[in-house]
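Morning!

This is the sequence you dropped in the shared folder:
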Amino acid sequence: MSLILASSSPFRKELLTKLGLEFSTHAPDINESQQPGETPEQLVHRLSQEKAREVAKTKSGLIIASDQVATLAGGMNSKDKILTKPLTHENGFKQLQQSSGNTVTFLTGLTLLNTNTGNIQTIVETFKVVFKTLTDTQINHYLKKEQPYNCAGSFKSEALGIGLFERLEGDDPNALIGLPLIQLIKMLENEGVDILTS
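The structure's back. Tokens below.
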């Protein structure tokens, strides 16, 4: 069966390449807006499934789709805040100021859809990043060097962004980049694909 990554992300493509399987990529075009009353977990669960189903309209095989949000704890009696892509230096600076000394939780929805059987598997993987207490100078220098304006939370963990952290907490560091490989391998095994013998 052909393997299709429902994503245009170069980072997810690079991660999937690690498994040594042949695959193609196809970017789904869906509305990624959060629905009223939807929690961050529900959002990434739904969007990963929608992305897989959208690609299944034109492609067949095993479709891998994922969606990720970063959240910052809202404190007493308030909801966790979703950290979006900052797009500008000013927004990135505000995000990193808010994250400084705090914990940011990454939620990654992962779906594997078998178009031949209709079988769909979805999980939500959690990964936490504990930030150092950062100075304004450190934040400004980091943003100018890396320009992570298209990254949720205003950093790239696979590059200089690792210097912003006190520690990482989670089962699979790949989840932080947007594709939890340990869970994906289990899903593929459920569909008869063993990456160690393929």
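Headline: The radius of gyration is 17 Å.

More detail when I'm at my desk.
O.
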